[in-house]
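HUMAN: Mind sharing a backbone?

ASSISTANT:
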Amino acid sequence: MAYLVLARKYRPQRFGEMSGQEHVVRTLSNALKTGQLAHAFLFTGPRGVGKTTTARLVAKALNCEKGPTAEPCGVCTPCVEIAEGRAVDVVEIDAASNNGVDNVRDIVEAVKYRPARDRFKVFVVDEVHMLSQGAFNALLKTLEEPPPHVKFVLATTDVHKVPETILSRCQRFDFRRLTLQQIADQLAKVAAEEGMRLSPAALALVARQAEGGMRDALSLLDQVRAACGDAPGDDAVAEALGAVDAAAVSRIAGALVGRDGAALLREIEALHDRGLEVKRLAEELVRHLRNVVVAKLVPQAPIDLPDAELAEVRAQAAAADAAQLTRLFDLAQRAVVDVKLAEQPRYALEVALLEGVFLAPGAQVSELVARVEALARGAPLPPPRAAGPATPAAPAAPPSGSAPPAPPAAPTRGAAAASGWRDLPAFGTPGCAAGSAPAQPEPEPRPAPPAPAAPAADPGAAASAADRWRAVVEQVEQESPTAAASLKQAALLGLGEGEVRVQLPPGFHAQSAERKRGDIEAVFGRFFGRPTRLALTVAALPAAPAAAAAPPGAAAPSIAASDAAERTARSARVRETARAHPNIQEAVRVLDGAIDRIEEL
């Protein structure tokens, strides 16, 4: 006789044998007892949790010779044939391969005929989300009003792909993943029936690899039996499944919590030498650290683990503070991503976890908070944790009778602590530099002395020419933004009688200004009140000279260059003001840090 795999051999044959789906069993049993069973059902949930099995149980309950009943006998002809999948009046359809309109039309045609022998004709459509849109549409009317002798059971793992028009016509049941303990208990029963001897740790390992699916768990148990026989050890089970031993993961987590880098590397090396996939190790470590964090933050929360593993998790949770555990959890989660992208996954995992080993102690954070709060209250600052033996030398006291010393460059610790944040001047006020070197006012620009050979250009006239040039370009922009964009790149050579002389570098802007010459000169004429031509010189623009070194008659900077220079200067002033603000300086001192960058908002 051919070998029957455990997943088929131990498929539930009665509602009472279903594990983990009590809410579904209870509802269907009550409906069968009261005769209020719907004509269409939708079973949705992960793979291997009992959707198709429940559909067969519904068919058996309806067609049992003693039914309809919530407890089919399992020995009559309809029950036996349905269990073996050969009942003529129970039609199972795989929608993944029969997903067209013609396939649904066959169902619609078959619905018209009464059952050949049984009480009901039951159509079980598995993976119903794979049907095409046309097939769904063809099924709508029949699904809404089937003949009284027809029942539909639709099953899917992706309910979000099923149209709302189908969902509204069905009674929906959501199947849950089984817990690790439920799977382990069921595996223990099956192992006892099969004469297998597995430790609770081995059963838990198989259950964890099943990820909530009973069918997957039984298939894995079959694999373990084929690889290791009827009495495998824990290590043999882990090796057969390519799984991570929970004890090894716990030791790695213990090395992280205990800051033992050497032990951490030894454990990773041992698992790597066994051929374990590094990605799976990282994922199992994330799962374990998540349980440790939950045990730390919510001690009364139920954790789906065997008793031995749960005790180890609680011990690790008690050995570290919540801040350290949360940071380790975050590091492990990011390590999963790094491992997937790395050319050397093992090294990526080791680097990420060693970073967790050498994380700064969480006590430094609480100490920092205490120092900031003390500063805000104006109380003396608690002494900072020493970073090394060196301590700053105290300033020498001035000799008696001498003149008062100059203001210090930065506020002293005592003065800053005594003053508190409230005593610091607001940002941007005249006294914002109190306690630091007084800000020197910017020297006002002085006009260059007149050249002896020729009279200097009138600064007022130059300013007036620049202002008039900017105004006329703004006028051009209202009528031709393209032309104005080119003129903003031009250096002004002069504004003469009936002529505006500008210089543009060769390229796009010079060509654009030439093409738009007519529009530009029309705006010039209206602006100046007389015909004015554009005298365009095409040549590379010289580097802009400094204001003090600009020779008389030199080309004025372009509007674009002037605006860019103004933005740069303004940004530099804002950044320097922010950097020199006493509040910022005091924060840098208290936090013992440095300004990395300043961003304008």
Summary: The longest helix spans residues 559-580. Residues 385-463, 546-550 have pLDDT under 50 and may be disordered.
